[in-house]
Amino acid sequence: MIVEDNLKNVVDEGKVSGFQFGARLPYYRGVSLSMLEEIEVSVDGKVLPQDKVHLIVRDNTYNLKQREEELDDRWEMGEVVNLFIEKEEGLPKGKHQLGLKVNIRIGYLPFPAIRNAQKEITIE
Amino acid sequence: MNHSIKRGVSLYSYQEEFFLKKMSLEDCIAATAATGATGIEIVGEQSIPGCPNIPSDKFVVQWFEWMDKYNVTPVAHDMFLDYNKKKGHYYTDEEAVESFKKDIRFAHKLGFKIIRVIVNTTPQIMEKVIPYAEDHDIKLGIEVHAPWHINSPWMTRHWEVMEKTGTKHFGFIPDMGGFTKRLAMVQVNRLIRQGADPEIAKFVCEQHEKGVMAEYTIYEVSRMSDRRIDMAVAELSRHNTFANPISLKEHMDRIVHVHGKFYDMTEDFIEPSIPYEDVINVLKDGGYNGYICSEYEGNRHIQDIQEVDSVLQVKRHQQMLVNYGVK
Prior knowledge:
heterodimer; A: mainly beta; Immunoglobulin-like; five-stranded antiparallel beta sheet; four-stranded antiparallel beta sheet; 1 helix; 5% helix; B: alpha/beta; TIM Barrel; 2 domains; 14 helices; 8 strands; 46% helix
């Protein structure tokens, strides 16, 4: 689920505005963004607010509300999208434990489909 | 009775390699053809970006070029009905029908003659889309997937729609997972790796094979352990059901397609958990002349300890079908 290749602190107008990393949808088909019930990111065991998580799908960036309302654009199977997390000063240099929880609302399942991943990452 | 059962592969089988971009869509089609299978099944939303929107003309041309190049035929598209796609809103019947029609147009455009209907689709929706499917010459099949079996109450409601409408464009798609006589060891062993008690796992497997009702086994296990992981093993017996293959017999003219679900193929072409030969014999005797499409689902249970080789697994499964007389 967590793809380290795109990991970095993001600099916006000379200031670090947050960090980003790549992610793959933990499911066997693509889904419309509206079906992503929750995307929760944690760093070193601390859960970050979900409304700080933005989803960058190809050329479009979605905040939480935009994502929930997006019925057409999709996170496709195996597609690496970027998650951008607003966080002043981003992540400090060094090793961190990155956590990702994705909860997908799926019509035929009577329960939420929740997947968790953890990965040790290094910010350089 | 004469049968002319045909072999196909659901590209769902190659999902591990496809997800990791080790195989492209064309690679999956080529791997299918290399087994001698002639039919292609897809989960549209897995294989083709943008599905169920109609793909570009360029893609459609490419698709049929692949079909010619590898000498295979589009057989079935597996659709979904995400009635809770909009947050906080449940599809009205009209919205559900519109969503379904999109899949019919998608399947038709790519030459599929069958749509696998996801099991949560209601009989009322089926009745409303049948005329549209007839117009597009697409046969719809409700998937009979464990823990349902072909005579489950839900399937009976769908059967009523088939009877009532008298249509030739709606029937059943039995999934071989509904004939799980012995629990799949790839599933059991994964739970043991996650901490389940091997003795409890052994007990559950024995009860399942004997045909003991899952609720009894679950209750017994709840008295042996209060750990969630041990209950998960017991619950395998509830989700993976076994029906007598003879149950297909009276529905034979309503079977439009078969999902060849499998978990693990041995080197000598045996699927230890599913008595394939028995099921195939019932299909042969009944004169079934559709496809059986391989649907490998062991990947997710072994990916934590070994590299998944879906291509090899599918190849063995296809050889097994040949060994049981499916040419």
